[in-house]
Automatic annotation (TrEMBL):
<protein>
    <submittedName>
        <fullName>Outer membrane efflux protein</fullName>
    </submittedName>
</protein>
<comment type="similarity">
    <text>Belongs to the outer membrane factor (OMF) (TC 1.B.17) family.</text>
</comment>
<keyword id="KW-0812">Transmembrane</keyword>
<dbReference type="GO" id="GO:1990281">
    <property type="term" value="C:efflux pump complex"/>
</dbReference>
<dbReference type="GO" id="GO:0009279">
    <property type="term" value="C:cell outer membrane"/>
</dbReference>
<dbReference type="InterPro" id="IPR003423">
    <property type="entry name" value="OMP_efflux"/>
</dbReference>
<keyword id="KW-0813">Transport</keyword>
<dbReference type="GO" id="GO:0015562">
    <property type="term" value="F:efflux transmembrane transporter activity"/>
</dbReference>
<dbReference type="Pfam" id="PF02321">
    <property type="entry name" value="OEP"/>
</dbReference>
<keyword id="KW-0472">Membrane</keyword>
<dbReference type="GO" id="GO:0015288">
    <property type="term" value="F:porin activity"/>
</dbReference>
<keyword id="KW-1134">Transmembrane beta strand</keyword>
<dbReference type="InterPro" id="IPR051906">
    <property type="entry name" value="TolC-like"/>
</dbReference>
<keyword id="KW-0998">Cell outer membrane</keyword>
Length: 454
């Protein structure tokens, strides 16, 4: 309840900020995931499948009860007819009116436990659809994590690119001054202008990538593309400490209990096994009870009049009372030969059971492979991040040293801008590696069911 309330407040803040305030709301990763879970259309679609299965379960339970129906009809016949109510042949040019009504009920007492097994199968199907909803939520959660971290990465790349443009623009300004007094050549100026253009291109590229990842994130959250908010950056040091020690066995065992794919595969096995029992029920006899109560009326039914030898139409309610009837019956159907259909149904159900077991084994093997790969990716991302930090620091020191030499004329423009390009690339690579490491850590959280937060 508190989580839903905080999400509602968060959405209100975003809408309020879009109304014209300069303050922009900050959206955490957890808030983005919660908003997606509450609003995404794919989750609603999966929920409808669950609701349909729930109705199927309710219907299968009601199949155990007797049915009950009421029927009535009125028929008018002109001319020749046989009146079953009065037991006479009617001739002549006249209308005869008939009416009847009946209440009918029947119930199957036994049908090879098929109805009971169908109820159990529908319960399993309901659990399968519930796990399908969880699966859709998990997949979309991973998409939110991916786009959220991509947006942060591209935003930092954008900020770094702007800083690089400021640096190269300042260098161009200084070189223009030196060129004016004859200390720099036209080649130096051209190289400076080329560096500015290259850095400006990096700004446009990273800005476009940032906008695209933000658009994808807003679409997952079912928000308008015009919605504006800021993202919360993670604490890198804390995340690195959190994943310092990871055991494959621990992660894999936790993932087995949290991943909907594994849960769904287990339910599919149970459903396939229950379908075998349903198919075997076809070999058993079917025992049913039925009963009906009815009455009828005829416009030709006569009764003795007050005067001797005279007849008058028998009153409606007298006929209804006199013509009532009750019928009851017991039905037994024993299958003897059905062209091999039941045997084929059983064989198909058994094959489906084996198929479900194989699918479960494949899911477990895939999860094992995925967890192993995720842990290796996280460890590799950590190493890459440390290496990229060293590369950036050394390239920055090299750039600063060459810049000092360039300013006093001891290095040429090619050396200067090669060093600057190397530093820029190293900074971009460090930013990417940093959030790649965060993403790999969040993937581990995703598989073991930990809350996805920074």
């Amino acid at each position: 309840m508190i989580r839903k309330l905080s999400s509602a407040i968060f959405l209100w803040l975003i809408l309020f900020c879009n109304g014209g305030l300069s303050v922009r709301a900050q959206v955490s990763l957890q808030q983005a995931i919660q908003t997606m879970l509450e609003r995404n259309m794919q989750i609603r679609q999966a929920q409808f499948g669950y609701d349909i299965s729930e109705q199927n379960l309710i219907q299968s339970k009601k199949e155990l009860y007797p049915n009950l129906s009421f029927g009535a009809d009125n028929t008018n016949i002109y001319g020749l007819t046989f009146d079953q109510t009065s037991g006479q042949l009617i001739q002549g040019d006249a209308w005869t009116s008939y009416a009847n009504a009946q209440v009918i009920s029947s119930v199957e007492i036994f049908r090879g436990f098929q109805k009971v097994n169908q109820i159990r199968a529908n319960k399993i199907q309901l659990a399968i659809d519930a796990s399908e909803v969880d699966k859709v939520k998990n997949d979309l959660t991973l998409s939110v994590i991916t786009n959220y971290l991509e947006a942060i990465t591209n935003n930092e790349l954008y900020e770094a690119a702007k800083q690089q443009v400021r640096l190269s623009s300042e260098q161009l300004r200084q070189d223009s001054i030196q060129f004016a007094v004859g200390n720099k050549t036209i080649a130096d100026i051209s190289q400076s202008e080329n560096q500015v253009a290259t850095d400006e291109l990096s700004i446009m590229t990273s800005e476009n990538a940032y906008e695209l990842s933000m658009l994808n994130l807003k679409q997952l959250m079912e928000m308008s593309p015009d919605t504006t908010f800021e993202l919360e950056k993670p604490d890198i040091a804390e995340i690195m400490a959190e994943y310092a020690v990871l055991s494959f066995d621990d992660v894999f065992q936790k993932a087995l209990t949290t991943q909907p794919n594994i849960e769904q595969a287990g339910y599919n096995i149970a459903l396939a096994k229950k379908n075998i029992d349903i198919a075997k029920g076809g070999y058993y006899p079917t025992l049913s009870l039925s009963g009906s109560y009815g009455t009828n009326y005829s416009s030709r039914a006569m009764t003795a009049g007050e005067l001797p030898g005279t007849f008058v139409l028998r009153p409606f309610f007298d006929q209804v009372d006199a013509n009532k009837s009750f019928r009851g019956g017991v039905g037994l159907t024993v299958p003897i030969f059905n062209n091999g259909r039941i045997k084929a149904d059983i064989n198909r159900a058994k094959l489906s059971y084996l198929q479900a077991q194989t699918a479960d084994a494949i899911e477990r093997r895939n999860l094992e492979r995925t967890i192993g790969q995720a842990i290796l990716d996280l460890k590799f991302a950590n190493k890459q991040y440390f290496t990229s930090q060293v590369a950036f620091n050394t390239s920055r020191v090299a750039f600063e040293a060459i810049k000092e030499r360039y300013d006093v004329g001891m290095a040429n423009s090619i050396e200067m801008f090669t060093a600057q390009t190397n530093m820029n690339r190293a900074e971009f690579d460090m930013i990417r590696r940093k959030y790649e490491m965060v993403f790999r850590g969040k993937v581990i959280d995703y598989y073991i069911g930990n809350p996805i937060t920074f």
